[in-house]
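Problem: given the chain below (400 residues), write out its structure.
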Amino acid sequence: MQRIPKENAIDLINRSIEDATPLPKSGREAYAFHPWEEWIQTLRTRAREVFAADSDQFKQIASLLTEIEGYRNEVAGRLPLLGRLLAILRAYAKEIQEFWTDDANHRHDDSVPTDIEPATQREVGVAQQAADKPRNSIVVLAALYEELEKVFDDERSTARFPLQLSWSRHTLDGLKTRYWRTVLDEQHELIAVTPDSMGLTETAIVATAAFKTFKPSLAAMIGICAGRHDKGVRLGHIVVPTHAFHYQFGARTENELKPEIRAESVDSSFSTAAQSISGHESFPIWMNEKHPKAIRPKARCECHVGPMASSDYVAKWDELIKHAANMDRKVIGIDMESYAFLRAAKQCGLARESFIVKCVTDYADKDKDDQIREWAQVAAARFFYSMLQRCLDDNAGTAF
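Solution.
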């Protein structure tokens, strides 16, 4: 139930966001000297004024504030929670802007605080103008949510983006597919989307819908894949495809299958960027040191560029990758989505603005397991951010 006038609610939430957000180039130091206790108490009071105490919105905000408060002076523990809280506040601000009404019949008149000054038209206008400011969209897609969420959690090691990105969740029009949105900088926003299902068909449908909806200037796919051991690809290695092909297509006669290869290429500039990043002497150390406490691969992290095969089913039989190698002897990896992603990109006019980052978790054989799955998903997200920085910065230097 709406408790206070719409403009008052927007003003209170925007003030809370402003109080919690440091200047764009501030780092952890800004958070270290933040008046946490005062801010937490103020936000609790504001949230209670905007939402009923028994509402889901108030409970969600209050729960996060309690978690933040529990970390006391441990700034590192508070930062991820603060990022989630800012994303929630921004989502509620949008919800209020779109769905609340100032009709007195739709709110409790006796619950309107008397000590809150209504936001001026100028303040509301400035806030709305900032929210509506057009930005170039960048789309990142993953087959599964567990792969995509590493983009939210990854702590960027570069100075190009804010220390903690704040995400809001939405649903693609016409689909039940979830997507998340955040602002990278004044010129760019990042859209993260997933069908949360493996396979060529699901990837093609969701990728096409995302490309048509957001008209991105850049698109990427991240996740995990199988690697070709006899080509030197090891568990935990990064694979950046030069092209992807679907090799389980063709015509079947009574006695044989006549395969027809369908392939889509990636602009060579992305391979160059990937080799430049992985060629830096700090690359293996950077990839290992900044990972969460997960099972790590034994091999030193490397990056490979080359063909990626896309299969119709999960590869747990080594004949599959041998079959793919017969189609293209240089193939270095196999997954279930890359071809569909690149095909959708081409159909939507993004053939030269799309790339893929995958991390190897198995060799497509009967010994396939998930021991380093978590590690690999984070590695793919981290490498994606480095690639993204290279794409956006003309004079990036190193990505570390």
